[in-house]
């Protein structure tokens, strides 16, 4: 009887893994990275990076946001073009998408979505003392963010228990 119970659990686990694989395949073919909820950590990270591929505005050289999280130091003319020509708005849309898909996302420079968003808004506000200054102030990390890892760890522990 115990063998039958373990076999049922193993089949249930296999079905669960198959369902996750199907969802992952569907996630790869979706145009809008925000179209799926409750993505696994790796799928969410991949979709957050897809948000950065949305390049609809014409930006000054190097003005497109990418995974580095760095916005170049523009000349005064290029900064005005960045802010008024739609590039800043596009950057804010990209950041909203990244935050919607994966709220724990940190760019390569360790900046959070909010760090870059706040920088762009201040740098493009003519009444701000930071107008034209695209230097990103990075929020210090308060240690490792274990929330995304906890789900993977829990799945590993459960799968190990099932196959004992």
Automatic annotation (TrEMBL):
<feature type="signal peptide">
    <location>
        <begin position="1"/>
        <end position="27"/>
    </location>
</feature>
<feature type="domain" description="DUF7731">
    <location>
        <begin position="44"/>
        <end position="135"/>
    </location>
</feature>
<keyword id="KW-0732">Signal</keyword>
<dbReference type="Pfam" id="PF24865">
    <property type="entry name" value="DUF7731"/>
</dbReference>
<protein>
    <recommendedName>
        <fullName>DUF7731 domain-containing protein</fullName>
    </recommendedName>
</protein>
<dbReference type="InterPro" id="IPR056633">
    <property type="entry name" value="DUF7731"/>
</dbReference>
């Amino acid at each position: 009887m115990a063998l039958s119970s373990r076999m049922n659990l193993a089949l249930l686990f296999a079905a669960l893994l198959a369902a996750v694989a199907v969802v992952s395949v569907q996630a790869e073919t979706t145009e809008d990275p925000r179209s799926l909820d409750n993505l696994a950590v790796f799928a969410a990270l991949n979709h957050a990076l897809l948000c950065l591929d949305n390049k609809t505005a014409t930006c000054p050289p190097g003005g497109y946001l990418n995974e580095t999280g760095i916005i170049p130091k523009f000349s005064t003319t290029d900064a005005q073009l960045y802010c008024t020509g739609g590039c800043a708005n596009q950057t804010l849309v990209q950041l909203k998408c990244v935050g919607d898909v994966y709220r724990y996302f940190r760019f390569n420079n360790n900046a959070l979505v909010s760090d870059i968003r706040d920088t762009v808004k201040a740098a493009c506000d003519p009444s701000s003392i930071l107008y034209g200054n695209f230097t990103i102030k990075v929020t210090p990390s308060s240690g490792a963010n274990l929330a995304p890892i906890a789900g993977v760890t829990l799945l590993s522990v459960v799968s190990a228990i099932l196959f004992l």
